[in-house]
Amino acid sequence: MSAGTGAAPRAQAGAESGTARSQRGLMPLLLTGNLMLFALYGGVASILLPTQVEHIDKAHKVALLGLVTGIGAAFATLLNPIGGALSDRSRSRFGRRNPFLLGGALLALAFAVVLGNTGTIALLVVGWCLVQGMGNIYQAALTAIVPDRVPPDRRGTASAMAGAGTTLGLLVGIVVAGRFTHAVAWGYTALGALLVLAAVLLATLTHDPRPDELPPRAADGSSLRRDLASFLSALRVHDFRWVFAGRALMILSYFCVTGYLLYMLEDHIGLPHGMKGADGVALLTLIGAATSVVTTVIGGPLSDRLDRRKTFVFVASAGMAAALLLPLLSPHWATMVVFMAVDGLFFGVYMAVDTAMVTLVLPRGEDAARDMGVLNIANAGPQIIAPFVASAIISTPGGYPALYIVAAVLAVAAALSILPVRSVR
Description:
There is one protein chain. The chain contains 16 helices and no strands. It is mainly alpha-helical. The protein has a single domain (25-208, 237-417), classed as Growth Hormone, Chain: A, CATH 1.20.1250.20. The longest helix has 31 residues, at 26-56. The model is unreliable at 1-22 (pLDDT under 50).
């Protein structure tokens, strides 16, 4: 009995010490970890994959790009909550999340190298499924760090770091990938290596609680099989369900437009004389990222201070809907510059505060990675649908203008979905 009574204080002391250590430097590493992940996603989806698809079959590039990215997103949707459930149950001496951060990043790099050397649509589908799937295992562990280690009154700030990393990552990925349009294999290798670097930094410079620092799992007869079978149970919780719906609608709106930005500039908007499509995408992304980062780092901490989340998310979603009217009414390069700047302002607030709100409506802390993985279905699932929806709309007589209208309607629906949430102000 004396051994048992001594173990609890030691575990508690270890947990407190681990929490203190994990806070030092955690915020900038959350930014870095998300930045490198979304550099991979953004660079591949916006530049490298479209370039490969165009080389393989230029005449059918719109439909084929939708096929590749849609199937890849479907595979990633499955891997994220499964990877989250596995890391929730992990009691490795290397930490709860570290094995999944490092393993996911290393496998993503390996598959990215293979993907960069493929030359058929079928192999592009398989390769992108594997890269995105491993990236989502990494992402499941990364997103769980916030509810694991950050107190509720700091969630807005932590989510701002993650949101800034997401936005900057898309820019970095596009800029890096744009330098490799004539050597795509090296582009894939560079982006995969950046992800491994981020995983190593997170694993070595922050404290991932060890088994003796974790609270015991509830004695409810749970098993991995039961966890996997019930991973959608979070959707039975009222507030989680509405936040899930709002995120899904917003991501669908966002990717319907940004997923076809390269083709949009080349085939509809037009580019300034002498500018290449990849350079146009990089410049617009830079403009959007610059405004987004400013509002991300302001919006997240401000939502902490005011203890208000719903208002920020509602205004940001409605603002993104309004911004989509700009290219609809004036499909010109100068208007696209303004659109990306305005859209970035609202997107920065959305990413910071909505992510914080997600962590505050999680049903159970001990299943944080699993339930954040479920929430990620609202990120990855719409990416499955978006390429097919967008390509179908672009192929109609309405073309790109119709795409802007649909995306705006989806963003308005996302704003309205936040209103029924009860537990968060």
